[in-house]
Structures are given as structure tokens and as C-alpha cells.
Design goal:
The complex is a heterodimer of chains A (504) and B (289). In chain A, helix 14 packs across helix 15 (343-351). Chain A has helices at 42-60, 99-119, 122-127, 129-145, 148-156, 161-186, 192-201, 206-226, 228-234, 237-240, 256-259, 278-282, 302-313, 326-336, 343-351, 361-383; strands at residues 28-29, 77-80, 85-88, 91-93, 250-254, 321-325, 387-393, 400-401, 407-417, 423-430, 436-439, 451-454, 459-468, 477-485, 491-500. In chain A, strands 7, 8, 9, 11 and 13 form a five-stranded antiparallel β-sheet that branches. Chain A has a four-stranded antiparallel β-sheet with strand order 12-10-14-15, with no helix packed on it. Chain A has a three-stranded antiparallel β-sheet with strand order 2-3-4, with no helix packed on it. Chain A is α+β, with helices and mostly antiparallel strands. By secondary structure, chain B is mainly alpha-helical. Chain B has eleven helices and three strands. In chain B, strands 1-2 form a two-stranded antiparallel ribbon. Classes of the chains: A alpha+beta (504), B mainly alpha (289). Strand 1 (28-29) of chain A pairs parallel with strand 3 (30-31) of chain B, so a sheet runs across the interface.
Chain lengths: 504, 289
């Protein structure tokens, strides 16, 4: 909490002040700028690897091609706003099938819960776009303005030509990255090669420029300026992620049982923490991990790398700050309480730890939810028909009495085709003997059956008149079923309706 | 005014000094830029009030002159502008040409549906189902004045017994009883014969007497077996569709006093393109002839 706390530290013994004559603390906090120091180590290397992988994924996926035949977009992953289609490789999702996207979102959310309950906020620390782009922007910042101390010195300096040059260079680099980010985002919505050509030749639509501009601006603002404030002030996830954590979750922790009491390396009777502030200086959100679990901690574990570096230089084992469960912290604290601080506590403390329990009711539940959702989605996807038929019965008139005493009902058929080619279908009617039907505006095939031709990815609408001749003693309501049959005689889709007439 | 600022024991945060029934509020400071964003929204609102209609004063439109009504008018005008090219094509075509061209036909069915709801549905029903008492169904296969596209187009254009159109369908059936052409018994006999055309006569001698009267008075228009005549608008009497009721009393009344239903001539009231669209739409309701 130290970073965003705007108040001067309260002097010891000042608790219980009664406020008389004291001005209240300010309601608004000025931002304490964070200057994270560069750090090296296994966590940092993992974070670079994840960063490169995420950025590669983000920039390269729109360029993957997928041949869907003539007239269809050949981009593997494309949310085609203009035609209201979502293409994911061989899968094409229509607007009325938005539940597939709902399913994906549920899988994403529950997956996030599961990972959090196992490994804490690894999403926040490693893969969240805010983290990835902020990391990238900080890397650029370090290249241009130097590391923590150089940057602090530069910001404290009065404006000079050299400072202005560095600042302009930094912001220009940031804006360029932001533009590339915003530009790549639009490629998920419009065919990538086309939009790139159009963008640079000035022929892209106004919305394209608007959205690229918008995402350029937000990337620059969020990764360049807002940074950790996005996590601490804006993001809802830190607010409720604590509900996924328990004493068995691996979270970035300071092993206070080993580190406390803090003291100089040469001092006798102190813990391993030398209060060098390396963990604070590398923290991208500017907090002190030694204060324990806190909302601002994004779980990136760069403090672990920084601390290990210091410990190794002092000839002590690493792991004073590490991924650790709260249960193990408590166990090690209890096991070492009676021992003198420092080296004597290391081995008993580590020996008191138990391996993390990955199989727990909550992880089983998250796993089960994910399995059920994935199975439901997979089944729905596999059973999805190439054609679908919807029947809308005329309501006015309910039925028509014909001059020969027959009864006629009107229906509107809507037939959609999401197959991979043109569909040539016939209409058939399941109804009592004698019933016959006419499809308005339909060409008959060689056998006189009405043809319903459908383009790929097309929707056709036909009006069908069904007649029960006078000699058929129809009930006032008869169940009927329309079937569309393909050339092989297979029923491609069907829909039930009713045939209404006067009460006999 | 805050009275007592304390340090909260659990969070270590100051309270604001506000207290309601023992419930105290922690002072968790907002970032300062949040405050500036709030000020920016106020500035935005001030600009908005100057540019756009925001004050509850009639006629206060702001500097841009934008109004919701004006925007709607523009949208409607733009929409109607977009339709002009297609309407011109439909205006220049015959209904049969409109029906044969898929593009024009789709447009005519959509436009005809709207025009039908505006001008026709009051009498003929929302789906053209007609109504008892002389409003014929347009969804069945029985057509008084012909069910071809051309015949429907002519009926819509000129109406039926319309006062303001010289080419209207003007034929009138005589009022046989009221004008003294038949007496009451003869009207009854004729009605009995008409019932016999659909196999419903109870009184065979009366129907036999009626057959002579029918041949003399009715067959010239309705046909010798009651098959009707669309040229004259004489309905079929040998089918199951009865515009004014098919029971004997209704038939007696029709013979005695005639019916003489009327329909306005829409040619003088509607754009020819709309009449064309109506003809195509009505033809599609029941398949037409």
C-alpha cells in the first residue's frame, strides 16, 4: 500500500489521534511514479519468452491463411464484421450461434479461475496484454533513457536538449509500437493483406482509420502512461481473484520466517533479508512484497529474481522470495519459531513444507466445469447441420377455404446453408395422405419436385401453400413436417409445423 | 464536516471522519487524474450544451442546428431517395414484368406489403383474408373480377363501382324483389335452385321452378350452371366461397335487394409504382390465377 498512500508516514505512537485541529487526509492521490529496475534471472527469462510468444501470436495469426473456396475469405482467424461471420479455421460461426462464443468465454474465465487457484496471478504477471505491452514499453524506455537510477536522474533534471531528445525518441518509439498494435488489431476484423494495402494507400474506410487510431491511442496511453494504474484502479480481476486463492495456491511470497528480523549481513542474530530494497526497485507496480499478499501485486515474481541475485552474492541460498503456498508459509513459520533467526532456520523451514496439493475440490470443480462446457460445445459443433430450416406459419389468415371446399394454409420457409458448397435441395412434406403443396417461385426438377437452390453461406426464403382437398377430412389441427432433401435423398434439415382448419 | 479521523485497525487506513450509526468510511484516495477526467466530462457537457439541443426550451437547437427530428427526416429522405431508382423501374413496367424480375419482385413484395397494410388491410384484413359482409378474401382461389396480375392491377387501379373513375367495374345486379321483377315466392324458388348448384337444396319442386327463373333472369351473367363470369364480376354460385353468406336467407336477400359492394379506385390516389407493387403482392397472397 505504500506506493499509493499519499499521506506522510504516521509517527509511532500517533495512533488514536482525535483529529481535533487536524486537517483531513487528501481525498485524491498524486501518482508516485514507478521506476522499475532491470533484472536478470530465470523468471525474467520466462517472462521474455512469454512476451515474445504472445506478441508473435498477436502479430502473426492474422496472416495465417485458410482456403475456403471461391467467394469466401481465406484468413484463418477472422471476425468478419461486414458479413457478420466469425471464421476460426474450418469453423464458421453465424450470429445466431453466438453461444459458441459464450462457451469460449466461459472456458476462458473458468480456465483463468483454475490457473489462479493453482499458481496465483500468473495471468496478470505474464500473459495479460497490459503486462506484455507495459513490459515492452519499459524495455524501450530502458534502451533510450537508461535504467532506474538514470531515469530518475533524467526526470529530476531541468529540461535540456539532451533530455528533450531522449523523451521525444521514447514517445516516438512508443507511438510506433502503439500504431503497430492498433494496426494489427484491425486485421482480425478485415482481411489482413487487403487492409494493409488499403491502409497505406489511403483507401481504407473511415472506420478502419478511426479504430486503428483509437487502439494506437489506448495502447500508448495504457502501456506508456497508465501502466500499473490499470491494474490497481481499473481492472476488476484483482478485486475478486482473491476468491480463487487458498492456502494451497502458489503465490509470490516473501518467506518472512527466514528473512525476519531484517538486518545487515554482518549483524548477528538477524534473518536473511538485508533490507536492500532490490525487490521493491524491480517491482513494476512499485510495491513491497514483504508486506504480504496485496491487491497491487500482479504475481510477476521479478522480485524473486532480484532477491535471489542478492542472496547469491551474499553466499546464501535463494528462494527468500519465491512462489510459495500460504499453507507452507504457516507451516515453516511454526516449525522455525523456536529457532534463532538466520541460517539456522533455513533447513528446518524448508523441510516443514509439503508439496502443493494440486487436486483440491475447487480445482476439480473448475476442471469439471471446463470439461462439461468443452464437451457441450464440441458436441454442438459436431452435430451442427449444414442446412437449417425454419418455418413460419401464416397467422392471417389462419386458413383459407378454397372454392372446391378444400382448406389451404400458407407458410414461409427460411433455409440457411452453411455447408462448404452450393446446395440443391428439394422440399418434401410429411402429412396425411391427400395433402399437397406448392412452392411459390420454385423451379421444378426433372421429376417435378420443387427445387430450392442455395448459394454457399446463403439464406433462401420461400412461400409454401399447403392444401388439404375437400375429400380429406382434416382435423382442426394436423401436425405436419417440412423436410429438405438433398440430391442423395438424405434429409438435410426438417422443421415441424401445424396445419389448421375449421372445426369439423 | 468531518469530526473524528481515526486510523482503521485492520487496513491501517485513515477514516474520512464521516460516521453513520457506527459505520465509518475509509479514506481510500482516488488517483488525481480521475478527478481531472471528471472535470473533463464537465467541460465536455458545457461544449455539448452550446452545440446541441440540451435546454428544455422550444426551438433551442444549439449552434450545430442538429435535432433528432431533423436527423430522422434526413434519414427518411435518404431512404426514399435510395428507393427512387427501383420505384422508377417498377413504375415503367407492367405487373407481369415486375413479377418476372427477381430483383423487382422482391422489392415489390416488400413495398406491396407495406402499401397493403396502409390502404387495403382495413377491409381485406392484414393477410388479405377478407371479412364477412362483402370484403372478399384475396388469399383464396376465387376471384370476382379475375385473379391474373393484369386483372388484379385493373381492379386496384379503377376500383369497383367507384364514383370517381370512369373505367371502374360498374356492373350492377338488379334488385329483383325491390324493383318488382320477381315476387317473393319466385325469389325463394330461385334461391332454392342456387342452393341446388352446390347440392344443398331441400325442396326439389321449388328448385325445379327456380331453375326456369334462373335461366331467364340470372344465367346471362352467372352462367347456366352458376359458374360465374369474371368479365361482369358475377360470382360463381357453384363453389364453397360465399361473399355474403351461403345460407338460404342470405341468398334470398342477395337476389331480392342485390349487394353492390364497392371499392375505391386507387389509380387516382396512389403512385402507379405502388399500384404495381400492390398487384404483385396481392397476387402472391393466394397464388392468383
Amino acid at each position: 500500500m505504500s506506493r499509493i498512500d499519499p499521506r506522510p508516514p504516521v509517527a509511532a505512537g500517533a495512533d488514536g489521534h482525535d483529529g481535533a485541529g487536524q486537517s483531513p487526509a487528501p481525498l485524491y492521490a498524486t501518482r508516485q511514479k514507478v521506476y522499475p529496475r532491470a533484472v536478470h534471472g530465470p523468471v525474467r527469462r520466462a517472462k521474455w519468452a512469454v512476451l515474445v510468444a504472445c506478441l508473435a501470436l498477436y502479430y502473426l495469426v492474422p496472416w495465417l491463411r485458410w482456403n475456403r473456396g471461391p467467394g469466401m475469405p481465406d484468413q484463418a482467424v477472422l471476425a468478419d464484421i461486414r458479413q457478420a461471420r466469425l471464421f476460426l479455421g474450418p469453423i464458421e460461426i453465424l450470429p445466431q450461434e453466438v453461444y459458441f462464443i459464450t462457451g469460449l468465454l466461459i472456458l476462458g474465465a473458468v480456465g483463468l479461475f483454475a490457473v489462479t487457484s493453482l499458481y496465483g496471478r500468473v495471468w496478470c504477471g505474464f500473459t495479460c496484454p497490459q503486462t506484455v505491452w507495459t513490459d515492452l514499453f519499459m524495455w524501450v524506455e530502458r534502451r533510450i533513457e537508461g535504467d532506474r537510477n538514470a531515469r530518475m536522474k533524467l526526470d529530476a533534471q531541468p529540461l535540456s536538449a539532451g533530455k528533450a531528445l531522449r523523451k521525444v525518441a521514447k514517445h516516438a518509439a512508443w507511438l510506433l509500437i502503439a500504431l503497430l498494435t492498433g494496426g494489427a488489431w484491425i486485421m482480425y476484423f478485415i482481411d489482413a493483406p487487403t487492409v494493409v494495402r488499403e491502409f497505406f494507400s489511403g483507401r481504407a474506410s473511415a472506420e478502419t482509420y478511426l479504430f486503428v487510431g483509437l487502439f494506437t491511442f489506448t495502447t500508448y496511453l495504457l502501456a506508456g502512461w497508465a501502466r500499473e494504474q490499470v491494474c490497481t484502479y481499473m481492472c476488476p480481476w484483482p478485486r475478486f481473484q482473491a476468491a480463487m486463492l487458498d492456502e494451497n495456491s502458489l503465490v509470490v511470497s516473501y518467506r518472512a520466517w527466514r528473512g525476519e528480523p531484517q538486518g545487515k549481513p554482518s549483524q548477528p542474530g538477524v534473518g536473511d533479508c538485508v533490507n536492500c530494497h532490490a525487490c521493491v526497485h524491480v517491482c513494476p507496480t512499485g510495491i513491497d512484497i514483504r508486506d504480504g499478499q496485496q491487491l497491487e501485486c500482479i504475481g510477476c515474481a521479478l522480485c524473486a529474481d532480484a532477491c535471489d541475485d542478492v542472496m547469491h552474492r551474499l553466499g546464501r541460498p535463494g528462494g527468500l522470495i519465491a512462489f510459495e503456498t500460504l499453507g507452507n508459509l504457516a507451516a515453516a513459520t511454526a516449525a522455525t519459531a523456536a529457532l534463532p533467526p538466520g541460517a539456522a532456520r533455513r533447513d528446518p523451514g524448508m523441510a516443514a513444507r509439503r508439496p502443493m496439493r494440486a487436486i483440491r475440490p475447487r480445482t476439480l470443480l473448475y476442471g469439471a466445469v471446463m470439461l462439461v462446457v468443452a464437451a457441450a460445445m464440441g458436441t454442438a459443433l459436431l452435430l451442427r447441420a449444414d442446412q437449417d430450416l425454419a418455418v413460419l406459419r401464416d397467422r392471417a389468415p389462419v386458413y383459407v377455404r378454397l372454392s372446391d371446399g378444400g382448406i389451404r394454409n400458407g407458410y414461409t420457409l427460411k433455409l440457411g446453408n452453411r455447408g462448404t458448397g452450393e446446395a440443391v435441395l428439394h422440399l418434401e412434406l410429411d402429412a396425411p395422405p391427400g395433402f399437397f403443396f406448392v412452392v411459390q417461385d420454385a423451379e421444378p426438377d426433372t421429376e417435378g419436385r420443387p427445387l430450392l437452390p442455395l448459394q454457399r453461406d446463403g439464406i433462401g426464403q420461400w412461400r409454401v401453400l399447403v392444401t388439404a382437398p375437400a375429400w380429406v377430412r382434416a382435423h382442426d389441427s394436423t401436425d405436419i413436417r417440412f423436410r429438405v432433401v438433398d440430391e442423395a435423398g438424405r434429409t438435410a434439415a426438417s422443421a415441424a409445423s401445424v396445419f389448421l382448419g375449421p372445426r369439423p | 464536516m468531518p469530526t473524528k479521523i481515526e486510523k482503521d485497525a485492520i487496513t491501517g487506513t485513515d477514516t474520512t471522519g464521516h460516521e453513520w450509526d457506527g459505520i465509518k468510511e475509509l479514506n481510500t484516495p482516488l488517483p488525481r487524474w480521475w478527478l481531472y477526467v471528471f472535470y473533463a466530462t464537465i467541460a465536455f457537457a458545457a461544449v455539448w450544451v452550446v452545440l446541441y439541443p440540451a435546454l428544455p426550451i422550444p426551438g433551442a437547437t444549439g449552434l450545430t442546428g442538429w435535432t433528432a427530428r431533423g436527423a430522422l427526416r434526413e434519414e427518411l429522405a435518404a431512404g426514399s431517395q435510395q428507393q427512387q431508382a427501383m420505384l422508377a423501374r417498377i413504375r415503367a413496367a407492367t405487373p407481369a414484368e415486375v413479377a418476372a424480375d427477381p430483383e423487382m419482385r422482391a422489392f415489390a413484395l416488400a413495398g406491396g406489403r407495406v402499401a397493403f397494410a396502409n390502404t387495403c388491410a382495413a377491409c381485406h384484413g392484414a393477410g388479405g383474408q377478407g371479412a364477412a359482409g362483402g370484403f372478399p378474401s384475396l388469399a383464396d382461389d376465387d376471384w370476382l373480377w379475375g385473379g391474373s396480375l393484369a386483372a388484379i392491377h385493373r381492379t386496384i387501379t379503377h376500383g369497383v363501382r367507384a364514383d370517381d373513375d370512369n373505367d371502374t367495374h360498374a356492373t350492377l345486379m338488379p334488385r329483383f324483389l325491390a324493383d318488382g321483377m320477381l315476387n317473393a315466392a319466385q325469389v325463394g324458388d330461385t334461391a332454392e335452385f342456387v342452393l341446388s348448384l352446390t347440392g344443398r337444396a331441400d325442396d326439389a319442386p321449388a328448385a325445379r321452378r327456380g331453375s326456369l327463373l334462373f335461366a331467364e333472369n340470372c344465367a346471362s351473367c352467372h352462367g347456366d350452371r352458376g359458374q360465374g363470369n369474371q368479365e361482369m364480376g358475377a360470382p360463381r354460385l357453384d363453389d364453397q366461397v360465399w361473399l355474403y353468406g351461403g345460407d338460404k336467407a342470405s341468398i334470398v336477400r342477395s337476389i331480392a335487394y342485390s349487394r353492390r359492394g364497392a371499392m375505391p379506385a386507387w389509380g387516382v390516389r396512389l403512385d402507379p409504382a405502388v399500384v404495381n407493387m400492390l398487384a404483385v403482392y396481392v397476387h402472391s397472397l393466394g397464388g392468383g390465377d
